Amino acid sequence: MKSLTRNWEMYLVFSFKSLAIISVLLLLVMFVSSFTDCSKIPTLVGDASTALKSVPVYTYKIINTYVHDHQSFTQGLVFEDGFLYEGTGLHAQSSLRRVDLETGEILHLHRLPDHFFGEGITAYQDKIVQLTWKSNTGFVYRKDNFEMLREFNYSTEGWGITHDSKHLIMSDGTPTLYFLDPETFEVVRHIKVYDNNGPVKRLNELEYVEGEIYANIWQSNRIAKIDPQIGQVVGWVDLTGLLMPKDYRLPVDVLNGIAYDKTKKRLFVTGKLWPKLFEIQLMPLPESNKL
Ligand SMILES: [Ca+2]
Question: What predicted TM-score, i.e. pTM, was given to this entire model?
């Protein structure tokens, strides 16, 4: 009888030990499982908590309105040394021009050969770089007299271009932005642009503004403010209504063209065939309107 009791006690102890071991194993499995799920988050997102935050939306206040050549199919826009520089598109109509901001007068004009469809431009040091749409060809000019210095090639379509002082930054209509060595034009890295709804396509004209990349989204009234390190959209600018109905007497195309005056911190925007160019100030919408 004593022996039976002893066996029963040993059985209970063994059962408790087994239960404890099984519990620990289960907890371990749950922990590893949760860790594995987290590791599936793309490294691109980096800080997942940041990615899930709502994105601020900005509207605008018009500070100044200027004349813009309504025959200019704007594909690239920069402000440099007190002048606007504009790259225009369409076959047989593409150009690079230096423009007086106040009057809209074209001060210097370079026409591209008819078979090129001009796209984005950027002013890098003492040069202007201009892309073309489907010719895989870019041009480098002297900034002061538009003398052609060289051509270069790229494998994608050419849409927008800007720079961060270290690299040229180029769009091709997809969610990808390419960072190019400004001397060799080799791609040194790229980012995929995304917001809380996924990849953001149709990135068009670009401008580097105070540590962020601004990008026109083709065929929309929106500009994305993009973190250049990870591609996350950190703000949306809604420019709906910028061009008034009375400005539509002549055919106009989409919003396109962002230029930033680094010295006076002025932001300029226009559109393809728009009769006006605007200096605007971004106005954050209330918290409740965040996306
Ligand atoms: Ca620009």
Answer: 0.81
